Structure formats: C-alpha cells, structure tokens
Amino acid sequence: MKQQKSITTIDEYISSFPSNVQNIxxxxxxxxxxxxxxxxxxxxxxxxxxxxxxxxxxxxxxYRNHIGLYPTPSAIIAFKKELKNYVxxxxxxxxxxxxxxxxxxxxxxxEFRVNExxxx
Length: 120
Hints:
Elements: H1 10-15, H2 19-35, E1 40-44, E2 47-52, E3 55-62, E4 66-70, H3 73-78, E5 87-88, E6 93-96, H4 103-119
Antiparallel strand pairs: 1-2, 2-3, 3-4, 4-6, 5-6
Helix pairs in contact: 2-4
C-alpha cells in the first residue's frame, strides 16, 4: 500500500483541489495574507492555518460543498448579524461553494482577529 505524502504547506493543500475550489482557496489565502502580513503560514489540524504572535489567527478548509472558516468563537459572535445567512457553529462558518463568496466579510473577520491577537 502506497503511503500518501502529507501536506505541509498551504499551497500544497490548495493544489490538491479542483480548479474552481483552488480559486476560492487562493482568494481566502490572499485576503488573510493582506490583512495579516506578519502572520506565518502552516498546516494545523490538516487545515491551512495562519499564526500570529504564536496564536492561531484563522484556519480555513475545503469540503465537498463548502469552505469552512475557523476564526475562533469571538469573531463569530462579533459578526453574528453579518453571518445570519450562513451555517455557523461555535467556532466555524460554512460558505457554500456553489454560491458567491463574501470576500469582504472574510477580510473584515480577519482584520478583527488580527486586532484581537495584537491587543493580547
């Protein structure tokens, strides 16, 4: 049995998906990088993760029908009104792949998380 190579970078993660999903994931990555240029990229919990000041800033991941964004419960609470049309849990937001992505909202959530981490 051939052992699957584990993914170690966000770019490797993104390239493992079909092109339509890759385009969405690249945009997520670009937005997070733009809002958090000091953050480092890694893979944690088998998901693309950005770390700032040794704290997990934000994770994202692709699934069959949605992209999950994991910005911590505080961000989901802070953007509750803007997220009312999306499936959310305590720590996750689901954006349906077949629908248009709210990139501006993702930018705002990332900015919120950067400010939250830098205040600590």
